[in-house]
Amino acid sequence: SRERFAETYQAVSRSFRHVFARLFPGGKGELLLTDEENLLETGVDMEIRLPGKRLQNVGLLSGGEKSLAALALIMAIVFYKPTPFLVLDEVDAALDDGNVGLFADLLKEVAAVSQVIVVTHNKRTMEAAGHLYGVTMESKGVSKIVAVDLN
Amino acid sequence: SRERFAETYQAVSRSFRHVFARLFPGGKGELLLTDEENLLETGVDMEIRLPGKRLQNVGLLSGGEKSLAALALIMAIVFYKPTPFLVLDEVDAALDDGNVGLFADLLKEVAAVSQVIVVTHNKRTMEAAGHLYGVTMESKGVSKIVAVDLN
Amino acid sequence: MILKRLEIVGFKSFRDRLVLDFPGGISAIVGPNGCGKSNIVDAMRWVMGEQRVRSLRSTKMEEVIFAGTQDYPPMGMAEVTMILARREGFTFPEPYASCEEVTVSRRLFRDGESLYAINGVPCRLLDVREFFMGTGVGSRGYAIIEQSSVADLVEARPEDRRVFIEEAA
Amino acid sequence: MILKRLEIVGFKSFRDRLVLDFPGGISAIVGPNGCGKSNIVDAMRWVMGEQRVRSLRSTKMEEVIFAGTQDYPPMGMAEVTMILARREGFTFPEPYASCEEVTVSRRLFRDGESLYAINGVPCRLLDVREFFMGTGVGSRGYAIIEQSSVADLVEARPEDRRVFIEEAA
Ligand SMILES: Nc1ncnc2c1ncn2[C@@H]1O[C@H](COP(=O)(O)OP(=O)(O)OP(=O)(O)O)[C@@H](O)[C@H]1O
Ligand SMILES: Nc1ncnc2c1ncn2[C@@H]1O[C@H](COP(=O)(O)OP(=O)(O)OP(=O)(O)O)[C@@H](O)[C@H]1O
Ligand SMILES: [Mg+2]
Ligand SMILES: [Mg+2]
């Protein structure tokens, strides 16, 4: 219904502002409604201002900046409404080392409200996890699970 | 013309077989024509057999396996017909450490026939490069080049 | 609710029974390219009722059953089971409000016969969908991000982004 | 031929003149997210005649001109120059067969005026396209792989994969 969407949208856009500032220190991210008069059909836009840069359309962001902005929205929603679990399959592939660090730190806070399962090749993200599952195909073509020790 | 395509196709598929075996040790990759009778319009398919696995359609490959198979084809073409330069923008993002190593080693051989320019966040790929250009945005929003020392 | 355990057998490259316990916090799944990590993510979407074959990276639903290797023949069945526990202060939706745990499972045979069950009792796809409704993990929810699709949320049209937020309403 | 040097000024985030010399072998371009690495790749496609605005990640061609920041006003022009050297045993296509080096450049002004030049002599887009024809680096060639598109070659339809091989014929 209209009221529920309006209430959810308000809460998620507040949460998005906070999360965005954590992932883009010095930057500002806002959600905007494309048609405020019609809450049942309006779209949701994203306006981003990165430190020192002009206000820009999300389409102009770089590969890594797009991943990070998307993660900000996903985390913002989960902080507002925790889910039974959050599964992220190699979402950190385009991030540089600095941004992987910011992402991994924030993920620890998300894990306080939702179970987090993350597939990654990034050592920094592995270090943030409390529990590691290793998958191998020792006998070719058949997957098995093995214990993994980070060192 | 028909003859030129046939000749190029033959040479590229020979090269693809060699390059594929380097990137997937123990695997076999083949190019196939979808319509051998009509050389002017036929498509080119890829059939892949990974060690121990059944013959499979390229669609079933994992994210990293797809990147590696695509790189095998690109390098195969460049070995057959060198280009003034080859530009690869974060093509190693989905690769695990082992495959980045195989990719970087082969890239050195490609660089003997073509100038190679690679954008990467991967230390292993940076080590394979003879020359590094660092890009920064010290003054926010304006890109500059700085010297980079790997250590 | 929270995910406690996942059991997979005969699904994609998991020929032998696999049990994954999730102790809370962050669990990382790691391994070389092609070893089966994303197949685990597919298994989770599948048990919750995913019907779109393309989003399971296949062309026919029976392709999710272990197809065999040079050493092993194909299997005749795939089965995935998910065990969910209650989080303090929350209860499961009716008729499971009094349960401490709920088990959701899905089975597929090569002949096409498919079976859903909640707590061991056969049920319809609709019952599974209703169980996960509004939790964010349903098959179009915001809580499962597939490989190489994280940036889609930013590149999506504003109307599609709205659907993400609606799921949380 | 081989790429010897690239000069960029006023193109995307490169407000100040940038000169990149390529000494042969592998050159790596590195730096944090959003610093301008892919903008360099865009500059290379642009100088060789790329007309499709979307593949330059923009909506209007004038968006490739430095748009200004909080500290600097927008620029009025973008210019990219590419210097190519002869490889031993090869010559440039006519009418440049006797040249040791060839310079290709492209300029765009905010009012929309656009200029191509080879060796400093103004020419048409067609002349630039013909110069790079069949070398693999033309705007649809196999030799420039954009960010997050490497797997496209494997996911492409067989007819599209053929185009890649044809370019090498
Ligand atoms: N029905 C099936 N039976 C047997 N094996 C299968 C089946 N379906 C897929 N596979 C295998 O699973 C492999 C892909 O696994 P998956 O996509 O999970 O890899 P991954 O660990 O995510 O790798 P990456 O790090 O590259 O993303 C393929 O090599 C494929 O052969
Ligand atoms: N016309 C322009 N004027 C000024 N800045 C621009 C212009 N066009 C794009 N940019 C800026 O360039 C940045 C993107 O740069 P680019 O895509 O090259 O990053 P990158 O180094 O490839 O990052 P990543 O590692 O995340 O892929 C954006 O933040 C955008 O603000
Ligand atoms: Mg995967
Ligand atoms: Mg980039």
Would you give an account of this structure?
- The complex is a heterotetramer, with 2 copies of chain A (151 residues) and 2 copies of chain C (169 residues).
- With 151 residues, chain A is α+β, with helices and mostly antiparallel strands.
- Chain A is 40% helix and 23% strand.
- Chain A has helices at 2-23, 63-80, 97-110, 123-128, and strands spanning 28-33, 44-49, 56-57, 85-89, 115-119, 131-136, 144-147.
- Chain A is globular and about 60 Å long.
- Chain C is α+β, with helices and mostly antiparallel strands and 169 residues long.
- In chain C, 19% of the residues lie in helices and 27% in strands.
- Chain C has helices spanning 37-47, 125-132, 152-155, 158-166; strands at 2-9, 18-21, 26-30, 77-85, 101-109, 114-118, 121-123, 144-145.
- Classes of the chains: A alpha+beta (151), C alpha+beta (169).
- Chains A and C meet through α1, β2, α2, β4 and β5 of A and β3, α1, β8, α3 and α4 of C.
Oligomeric nature of the chains: heterotetramer
How many whole angstroms does the radius of gyration of chain C measure? 17 Å
- DSSP, total strands of chain C: 8
Shape of chain A: globular
Helical coverage of chain A, percent range: 25-40%
Main β-sheet description of chain A: 3 strands, antiparallel
Percent helix among the residues of chain C? Answer: 10-25%
**Numbering strands along the chain, what is their spatial order in the largest sheet of chain C?**
2-1-4-5-6-7
Largest protein interface, residues of each chain: A-C, 70 and 63 residues
Strand element count of chain A: 7
Stretches of chain C where pLDDT is under 50 for at least 5 consecutive residues are none
